[in-house]
Amino acid sequence: MIAASGTFGYGTEYAGLMDAAALGGICTKGLTLRPRPGNTGVRIWETPSGLLNSIGLENPGIPAFIEGELPRLRKLGPAVIANLAGSDLAEYAEGAALLDSSSIDMIELNISCPNVRAGGMAFGLDRSAASEVTGAVRKAAPRKPLIVKLSPNAGDVAAVALACVEAGADALSLVNTFRAMAIDTGRRRPVFDNVSAGLSGPAIRPIALRMVWDLWEALRGSPGIPIIGTGGIASARDALEFLMAGAAAIQVGSATFAHPPAMNEIIAGIAGYMKNRRIKTAAGIGIRAWGAAGQISFI
Question: Which domains does the chain have, with CATH numbers?
Answer without folding.
Answer: 2-296 (3.20.20.70)
